[in-house]
Amino acid sequence: MIYFCSLASGSSGNCQYIASDTTGILLDAGLSGKYIQNSLMHIDANLENLKALFITHEHSDHVKSAGILMRKFGLTLYITKKTFEKIESKLGKYSMDKVVFIEKEKDIAVGDIVVRPFSISHDATDPVAYAFKKDALKVSVVTDLGHVPLDLLSNLIDSNLIMLESNHDVEMLKSGPYPYVLKQRILSTKGHISNEVCAETILRVRSYSDRLGHVILGHLSKDNNTPELAFETVKSILEEGGLSLDDDISLDLAYRDRVGRLYRIED
Ligand SMILES: [Zn+2]
Ligand SMILES: [Zn+2]
To answer: pTM for this one?
Structure first.
């Protein structure tokens, strides 16, 4: 059994919970310690099983409570060395015994969960996304990326569940209030991916493997997207691609400001 829950996702803060029956992991720390603790209690997570905090990149919506979470739950921090150097001064009190440097494409075990970090294209120092495996079950979480190269796809294949960024609607972004430079940044290969690219990526993953049964749309923009638009756009592209949301795949949203559904996935 592998458990997954998005505690919140988006530019106001990110944190996801991944667990087996004996090991709990947090992914990113972009919300207050209090919100994360309350959210974990809300889903009845076993706080004593929490072992690790994995970090994707140094943007504040992913790291701002990293030090607090390490102290609150006694977590070991898993992070690339370059990202660590970016956030070290903001961690507060911590011990280097509780820091593990990860390397891309190298699996690392935490209890009975095996975690694989892999490279993503984003305007941060050394950004990564992760796949979490418990035996044959696999959950992948990929947000904050500007495009989807083949090597990324190969890391997603065989996932049972993917939380994938569905950041913006391109027309809303282009006609919206953001300054030109920021629009260009978001649209670039180091920015964020759109609803369409998200949907096409899901179709490509499914074309390699039909194990993928659950998709969660993440990191939705507050200004350049709406939950309804993201859901409907992705739904219609998946259906045009021949997938049925009743029979083949479930589609869900990770909310910006509240806890999502707790998934329990078994073989
Ligand atoms: Zn972000
Ligand atoms: Zn970011």
So the answer is: 0.97
